[in-house]
Amino acid sequence: MSQRTREAGKSEARERLLNTATRIFYAEGIHSVGIDRIVAEAQVTRATMYRHFTGKEDLVLAYLKQADQDLRAQVEAAQAAEESGAGKVRAVCRAITAGIRSPGFRGCAFLNAAAEYPDPEHPVHQAVLAHRQWFQQTVTELLAQTGSAPAGPAGRHLVMLRDGAMASGCLSDPELVCETFLQGVEGILQARAA
């Protein structure tokens, strides 16, 4: 077997592990799922798992990194479709509601992970905080384009609305949650324009 074939096999196995872990961690929680189950469902050996990840924590961090990259791409795509700051904010928020309406929605992967890793010094908790800092900074910068008042309070308000929508979206009617969230966003935008 050539080096290229071995590397392709390794990356395919890593991808299966990460995809399996992502599916199960998101649906069932992180602490409730053991490595044996992930290895079995990904159809790899334990040795293959440890060749790609140093342990479960490393796999959890890879899961969150992938979720972060996916959300950044989603936010960038939403913004690219609009020209005005308000339009960009609305597009990002519509993308959030599309997620809430999606089959199998179980809330925010990052809020869920923070609940399972409450120690602020833990690497998983740190990954959650880094993602949240990026998101808050992104929406604050977008909101700064919608009015002259400082955008920090509006950015924090939007993140809180989003957090509430993500938590409520898997507990009650997602349509009502999305409608309420988008109304709240419109309230923020109207206040910024006033």
From TrEMBL:
> Which Gene3D superfamilies does this entry report, sorted A to Z?
Tetracycline Repressor, domain 2
Q: Which InterPro entries match?
A: Homeodomain-like_sf (IPR009057), HTH_TetR (IPR001647), Tet_transcr_reg_TetR-rel_C_sf (IPR036271), TetR_C (IPR011075)
Molecular function per GO: DNA binding
Residue ranges of the DNA-binding region? Answer: 34-53
Specify the HTH tetR-type domain's residue ranges: 11-71
Keywords, in A-Z order: DNA-binding, Transcription, Transcription regulation
Q: Does the keyword Transcription apply?
A: yes
Q: Which domain of life is it from?
A: Bacteria
The answer to whether the entry has keyword Hydrolase is no
User: Which Pfam family is one of this chain's hits?
Assistant: TetR_C_13
Cited PANTHER family: HTH-TYPE TRANSCRIPTIONAL REGULATOR LMRA, TRANSCRIPTIONAL REGULATORY PROTEIN
Task: Write down what this protein is called.
Answer: TetR family transcriptional regulator
Which organism is the protein's source? Streptomyces fumanus
The record lists the lineage as: Bacteria, Bacillati, Actinomycetota, Actinomycetes, Kitasatosporales
